[in-house]
Every structure is written in structure tokens, then in C-alpha cells.
Please model this.
Amino acid sequence: MTTEKFDLVIARADRVMAQLDQRGGPARAAAKRERQRLNSDLKRRVGRAGVAIIAVSVITIVIGLIMPIGMFGFLAAVGLAIGIAALLAFIPGERATATAPAADLPNGSMVQRFDSYLYRTRAALPAPAQAELDAISAALPALKQTLERVEALDPNAQDARRLMSTHLPGLIERYAHVPTAFRNERDGEGISVDERLVEGLAAGRAALSEISEKIARSDVMAFETQGRFIKSRYGEERIDT
Model:
């Protein structure tokens, strides 16, 4: 009984510490970005519904100027407006479930969907893997800004896109399929399933960081080249007054 109580106390402490960790740092920033995405989707839905109501109202007014529509016509128009608005409001938007980003998304949208995917899968992973996810999430805003400047067919962008849409989600989803009882078993290299997950996430984080650095260095080189050109072209010239 003493051992069972001790285990319960430890489990409760782990839950409390996890909740405290989520209040600050990368996890909190990821939660904030997720709320912003959901609020943006809600605003789009409300906007579509508003446009539909305005459109039906304008059509009703135009018809009323041409011919009387009567009370029943007015009520029919109101019902039609409400029906269209409700339909637009409940059209599926961003899924509330953890879904890997589609491979055909633009660079910026893919980073956002990947960020959302990491946030929604975080709770199901062990603490060391959550730390790796937090590190990846913390680097995604800068990666988004970088990838938005390059074409989707850029080799570096292609590597980043494969990591975000296929390789890292595939790793997480395969881990989720492993029964809990088998996750501490060691493989031929003496590595458990949990440890293998952390290693894979760390490798993916390093790869994304390297890709972002490559693109940033390319931008720096382009800037330096432009600066040297302007200096060599105009540096020695003087404007006659």
C-alpha cells in the first residue's frame, strides 16, 4: 500500500510539473500561436457568413423594388440568409485533430500546419520528446519567415518540406502505434523506443536548423554582393552641383 501511495504521489507531481512547464517557455508560445490560428479561422467563418447575409439582403431589396414580395417573401429571405450563414459557418475548416500537413501546401502554410501538428501531438509523447518538440516549435517562426522568401522547388525548401510533411510526422505516428508496454524494450543497439523517438526528433530539429541557416547565409551573401556592387559602381563618383 505504501508503494502504491508513493507511486500515486509521484504521478501527481509529474502532472503538476508538466502543467507548470506548459505555462511558460516554448510550450506557452506554441499554445498562443495555436489560439491565433483558431481565432483567425473563426474570423474567416464569421466574415463568410456576414457576406452571405449582406448578399441575400441586397438581392431581397432589389427584388422588392421590382415587385412586392410580401411578408412571406421577407420571411423566406430571412430564412435563406440564416441557412446560408449557418452552412458557411459550419463548413469544416482547420481540423481539431492532429493531422500532418499536406505535401502541396505553400511554404508558409506548411510551417503553420506543422506547428499546429506538433502542438496537438505533444501531450501524447514522453517528457524528453516533448522537450525536443518544444525546441522545434520555438524555431518555426523564424523558419517560416525564411521559407516564405524562397520557392517551393528550392532544394533547401524541399528538404524542409519533406521533414515537416512526411518524415517527422511519420516518426511520431509510428511511435503512437507502438503499444505502451513495448516502448521501454531495447533493440539490437540497446536503444528503447522512447529513446529512438527522441533521437529522431533531435535529428530532425538539427536538419531544420541547418536548412534555415543555409538559406539565411545565402541571403547574407546576396546582400554583401549587392553592397560591393554599389560601392564599386558609385563609391568613387561625385555628383556635380
